[in-house]
């Protein structure tokens, strides 16, 4: 024990004096308004005195550990197992081996039931030896056992003066308390340590703020109050602290308040960083204020802060959700021009956006580009493409993509198979749909209600209502419950199969089952009546829907608009459009396309173009259908200047012409003697494997024959025989596809 009394060296005294100087400095900088009390000193440590016999055993154990350091502790301490008592001998051994960190850890692991004092000493040794992770793990394991926090902190304070003198140890305990979610206890520890002149570090306090914001019902208020309180108590908040506040406010959609915090940061000596701006930009995207988000990116540039991937990702995702995918890709290209490498999430959002617009060529272009960037496509990206192909009825390509996934070792999930099943159902290929259902079962995937709904939908479209009912009974037998989506899908299938009366009866059955028809149900049956030219019945359903307090959606209005336009009731359609604008119901691209399609079919291209301009002035983005309607209509009216203008705009936005639009455009150019432009379009069309109509082939057969290009002439002869005889009704078929998309 004499050795122990003389243990404290001059270096330790210097360290202790340094600690006291730090404490005095912190005390002097506390807010004078609080009238802080003088800090209490840490207690002197005095371990339990040992008997001569116990002191000798401690010395022998410590000597064995030191001398046989290359042997495992359990082997070294075999002779002492039966006589070692942690409550008596543990502290003494730690005193003698304290400077050998690895042996301290091994020895402590060997002790079966260490005392709380021993645990706290080892935590101090870990911190002093610059192994804070080990200390963190020890504290975490102890506090997770729900033992007394008060006793633990008291022992940590008691042993601090002799074993630690490193305030980081209290930071670690504070962090652990926050990590396990006892925020009130963490706050108490913060205040307790102030009594000893120790201020928890700003990094630990930031961790506390982030959990406070996420784990409490009034997180933002708590965070702001804590920032104010802790600052007065000596915490010097930094940029990350303010970023937490900005994030909390943005989560609650309080973006103006969040921007005020960003503006005030510099006044408080904290410079906003890329995280500050990116968080605020994401917040503005969430509330739909894209313009302000873009302005903030410009502001970042003026302040010399370079945007990162997260900054741009928020804007790209927001634009994709608004179906402004072309604008999203423009932002994407700007991002890449700043040498910011996109990740799979950004590519997935863009690919999904283009797939939903039906622009599969743009989606595949991005898919190839992603692979060139050495980003390996995952199940999500493949499934996104599969869904896009199925939505457009390209089932052969979708099946090829499925096999490509499998060949690359990827396992399609329920979403992948359900998309394919739905696609085959819509393509009237129920046999293939059920084959995929069986394959799902074979590989251990469980079909869900969406899968069964897709199968039933396909059966209803083929008129096999009884089979669909049997399938639904099977579904119920597996514990799945019919929901409104299932009924709506069945009603949709019946309507598309022309069984409107059965669909109406199913609506009644649904009510008897306790499920009430929603806006989708009514809109589906209204669409069927409109397509059957029964506008009066559609109006009746609309009135019934309004009487039940159901609000029409934009799809409901589009159904009515399409009905008016299909029946040539253009004045009614225009009145509906005006009414929607007056009531603040924003028409979408489909609304305008219906009017434009009908006006174009009546050769009124002046009115068609006016509708287009009105659409753009309302901020509604044109899609592939819009441009095809305009180009085809102007070409037929021989307004080639306008057709060329819209074609340039279409190409710039990443959309493609359909076969019928190509044919009309080419014939219009021919009539204006623009043979070079016509030939270029014809070759482009052939490269895309689109079939022109027979009149277009005749034009180029004559042209090549007159020019003496006999080889090309014979090639075109073979092509026209092979393709045009098979698809002589191509234009009619294409028009039907456009109508179904509208």
Notes on the structure:
- With 742 residues, the protein is mainly alpha-helical.
- Among the domains are: 1-198, no CATH class; 650-742, no CATH class.
- α14 runs parallel beside α16, α36 (624-636) runs parallel beside α38 and α40 (694-707) runs antiparallel to α41 (710-724).
- The longest helix is centred in the first third of the chain and has 19 residues, at 10-28.
- This is Pentatricopeptide repeat-containing protein.
- Keywords: Repeat.
- It comes from Kingdonia uniflora.
Apparent shape: elongated
Proportion of residues in helical segments: over 70%
Number of strands: 0
Q: Helix/strand/pairing class, anyone? A: mainly alpha
**What is the radius of gyration computed over CA atoms, rounded to a whole number of angstroms?**
37 Å
Strand content: under 5%
Largest sheet: none
Low-confidence stretches: 1-36, 729-742
Whole-number mean pLDDT:
85
State the end-to-end distance: 92 Å
Number of helices: 42
InterPro entries: PPR_rpt, TPR-like_helical_dom_sf
Protein name: Pentatricopeptide repeat-containing protein
Family: Belongs to the PPR family. P subfamily.
Organism: Kingdonia uniflora
Give me the secondary-structure topology.
Layout: H1 2-5, H2 10-28, H3 52-67, H4 73-76, H5 86-97, H6 101-110, H7 116-128, H8 132-143, H9 149-163, H10 168-179, H11 183-194, H12 202-215, H13 219-232, H14 239-251, H15 255-265, H16 274-286, H17 290-302, H18 309-321, H19 325-337, H20 344-357, H21 360-372, H22 379-391, H23 395-407, H24 414-426, H25 430-442, H26 449-461, H27 465-477, H28 484-496, H29 500-512, H30 519-531, H31 535-547, H32 554-566, H33 570-582, H34 589-601, H35 605-617, H36 624-636, H37 640-652, H38 659-671, H39 675-687, H40 694-707, H41 710-724, H42 730-741
Helix pairs in contact: 3-5, 5-7, 6-7, 7-8, 7-9, 8-10, 10-11, 10-12, 12-13, 12-14, 13-14, 14-15, 14-16, 15-16, 16-17, 16-18, 17-18, 18-19, 18-20, 19-20, 20-21, 20-22, 21-22, 22-23, 22-24, 23-24, 24-25, 24-26, 25-26, 26-27, 26-28, 28-29, 28-30, 29-30, 30-31, 30-32, 32-33, 32-34, 33-34, 34-35, ...
């Amino acid at each position: 024990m004499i050795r122990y009394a003389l243990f404290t060296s001059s270096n330790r005294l210097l360290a202790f004096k340094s600690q006291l100087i730090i404490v005095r400095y912190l005390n002097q900088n506390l807010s004078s308004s609080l009238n802080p009390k003088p800090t209490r000193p840490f207690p002197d440590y005095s371990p339990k005195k040992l008997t001569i016999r116990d002191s000798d055993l401690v010395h022998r154990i410590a000597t064995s550990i030191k001398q046989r350091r290359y042997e495992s502790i359990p082997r070294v301490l075999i002779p002492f197992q039966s006589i070692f008592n942690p409550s008596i001998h543990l502290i003494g051994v730690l005193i003698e081996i304290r400077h050998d960190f690895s042996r301290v850890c091994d020895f402590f692991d060997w002790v079966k039931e260490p005392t709380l004092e021993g645990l706290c000493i080892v935590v101090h040794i870990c911190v002093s030896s610059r192994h804070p992770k080990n200390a963190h793990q020890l504290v975490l394991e102890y506090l997770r056992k729900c033992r007394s926090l008060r006793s633990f902190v008291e022992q940590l304070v008691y042993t601090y003066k002799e074993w630690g003198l490193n305030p980081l140890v209290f930071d670690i305990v504070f962090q652990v308390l926050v990590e396990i979610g006892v925020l009130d206890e963490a706050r108490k520890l913060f205040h307790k340590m102030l009594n000893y002149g120790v201020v928890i570090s700003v990094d630990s306090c930031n961790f506390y703020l982030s959990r406070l914001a996420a784990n409490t019902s009034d997180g933002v208020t708590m965070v702001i109050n804590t920032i104010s309180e802790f600052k007065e108590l000596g915490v010097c908040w930094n940029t990350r602290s303010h970023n937490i506040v900005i994030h909390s406010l943005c989560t609650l959609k309080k973006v103006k308040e969040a921007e005020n915090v960003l503006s005030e940061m510099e006044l408080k000596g904290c410079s906003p960083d890329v995280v500050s701006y990116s968080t605020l930009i994401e917040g503005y995207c969430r509330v739909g204020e894209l313009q302000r988000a873009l302005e903030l990116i410009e502001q970042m540039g003026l302040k010399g802060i370079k945007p990162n991937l997260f900054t741009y990702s928020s804007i790209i995702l927001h634009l994709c959700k608004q179906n402004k995918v072309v604008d999203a890709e423009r932002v994407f290209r700007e991002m890449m021009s700043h040498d910011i490498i996109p990740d799979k999430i950004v590519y997935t959002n863009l690919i999904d956006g283009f797939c939903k617009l039906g622009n599969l060529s743009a989606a595949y272009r991005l898919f190839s580009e992603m692979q060139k960037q050495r980003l390996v496509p995952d199940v999500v990206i493949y499934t996104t493409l599969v869904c896009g192909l199925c939505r457009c009825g390209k089932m052969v390509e979708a099946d090829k993509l499925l096999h490509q996934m499998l060949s690359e070792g990827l396992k399609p999930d329920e979403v992948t198979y359900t998309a394919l099943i739905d696609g085959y159902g819509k393509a009237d290929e129920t046999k293939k749909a059920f084959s995929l259902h069986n394959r799902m079962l074979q590989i251990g995937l469980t079909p869900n209600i969406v899968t069964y709904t897709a199968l039933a939908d396909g059966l209803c479209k083929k008129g096999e209502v009884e089979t669909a009912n049997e399938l639904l009974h099977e579904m119920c037998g597996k514990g799945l419950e019919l929901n409104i989506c299932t009924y709506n899908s069945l009603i949709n299938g019946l309507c598309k199969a022309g069984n409107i009366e059965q669909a109406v009866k199913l609506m009644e059955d649904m009510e008897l089952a306790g499920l009430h028809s929603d806006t989708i149900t009514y809109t589906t049956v209204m669409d069927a009546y409109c397509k059957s030219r029964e506008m009066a019945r559609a109006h009746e359903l609309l009135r019934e829907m309004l009487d039940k307090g159901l609000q029409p959606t934009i799809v409901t209005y589009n159904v009515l608009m399409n009905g008016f336009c299909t029946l040539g009731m253009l004045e009614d359609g225009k009145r509906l459009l005006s009414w929607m604008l007056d009531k603040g119901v924003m028409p979408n691209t489909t609304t305008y396309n219906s009017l434009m399609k009908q006006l174009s079919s009546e050769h009124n291209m002046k009115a068609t173009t006016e509708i287009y301009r009105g659409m753009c002035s309302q901020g509604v983005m044109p899609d592939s259908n819009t441009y095809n309607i305009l180009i085809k209509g102007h070409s037929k009216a021989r307004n080639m200047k306008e057709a060329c203008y819209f074609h340039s705009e279409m190409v710039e936005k990443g959309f493609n012409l359909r076969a019928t639009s190509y044919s009309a455009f080419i014939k219009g150019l021919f009539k204006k003697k623009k043979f070079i432009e016509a030939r270029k379009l014809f070759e482009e069309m052939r490269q895309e494997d689109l079939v022109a109509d027979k009149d277009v082939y005749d034009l180029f057969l004559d042209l090549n024959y007159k020019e003496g290009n006999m080889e090309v002439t014979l090639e075109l002869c073979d092509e026209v025989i092979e393709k045009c005889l098979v698809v002589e009704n191509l234009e009619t078929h294409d028009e039907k596809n456009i109508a179904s998309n509208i």
